[in-house]
Amino acid sequence: MAEKKRDIVFYEDYFNDFFRRQRQKVRDKIIWTFDLIEQTDIIPETYLKHLDGTDGLYEIRVQQGSDIFRIFCFFDEGKLVVLLNGFQKKTQKTPKSDIQKAAKLKAAYHASKATQNKNS
Q: Mind giving me the DSSP string for the chain?
């Protein structure tokens, strides 16, 4: 197994809820993509792309056959990728409502982290 370059962590159950609803082949491809992201120095845009017009939001890009999925994430403390919500892509453009939901979850993550740091 290759050396890990970064860790992937999950924020609350948003991603897990999405993951559990997928077919096994899609789950396998998501896990394969996560392994690639954890182990690759420079991740190709095919698998991880910054969302233009956002404050540090990225989408993990997964394709299984003709089905395309996006999983929102962002970097925290250098190597840490935090996973948020995911969805099946059905149009060319990523829906603004999904991007807004991811931005709200990112803000909630940072707020809860700040509260935890104050209480430590």
A: -PPPSS-EEE-TTHHHHHHHTS-HHHHHHHHHHHHHHHH-SS--TTTEEE-TTSSS-EEEEEEETTEEEEEEEEEETTTEEEEEEEEEE-SSSPPHHHHHHHHHHHHHHHHHHHHHHHH-
- Model pTM score: 0.88
Locate 47 and state its tokens: 């698998």
Dig out the tokens for 84 from the structure: 């948020």
Q: What is the pLDDT of residues 33-80, one digit of tens each?
A: 999 999 999 999 999 999 999 999 999 999 999 999 999 999 998 777
How many CB atoms are closer than 10 A to CB 51?
Answer: 18
Instruction: Say if residues 73 and 109 touch (Cβ distance below 8 Å).
Output: no
- Which pairs from 48-56 meet CB under 8 Å and 24+ separation? 48/73, 51/94, 51/99, 54/99, 54/103, 55/103, 55/106, 56/106
Return the closest-CA partner of residue 37 out of 77, 76, 2, 84. 2
